[in-house]
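Need residues for this backbone.
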């Protein structure tokens, strides 16, 4: 079921980052700013807050850590919710899980994956490929 997305912003270059590790912010910010000119970045630390944001705003791209705060939903659970709420929005899951293990768990049609640790060039390339493949910037 597709949800209604109110237009609360006129910025088509809006990104959501779901990450509870504050040390990741500078790297992800630089990558997003390099890939999406004029991007406005919303930062949240839980999947629950992220799904509330997805219901309020339309995002050009979403990056989400898999392992978030204890006692909350994971990035994978968030991804499943987003498939219902905003199926057209590209989502990248991030974690230190080995690529092979992630691919085996999520299958061929799973989300895009960015293994940690990553550098600026890797993060920028993944974001750039998604926003250029999934639509115009």
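Answer:
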């Amino acid at each position: 079921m597709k949800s209604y997305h109110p237009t609360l912003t006129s910025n088509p270059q809006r990104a959501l980052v779901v990450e509870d590790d504050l040390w990741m912010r500078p790297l992800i910010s630089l990558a997003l700013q390099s890939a999406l000119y004029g991007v406005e970045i919303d930062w949240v630390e839980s999947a629950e807050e992220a799904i509330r944001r997805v219901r309020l705003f339309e995002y050009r791209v979403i990056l989400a850590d898999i392992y978030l705060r204890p006692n909350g939903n994971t990035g994978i659970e968030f991804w499943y919710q987003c498939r219902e709420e905003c199926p057209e929005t590209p989502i990248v899951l991030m974690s230190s899980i080995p690529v092979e293990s992630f691919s085996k768990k999520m299958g061929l049609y799973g989300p895009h994956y960015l293994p940690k640790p990553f550098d600026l060039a890797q993060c920028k390339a993944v974001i750039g490929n998604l926003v250029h493949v999934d639509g115009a910037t």
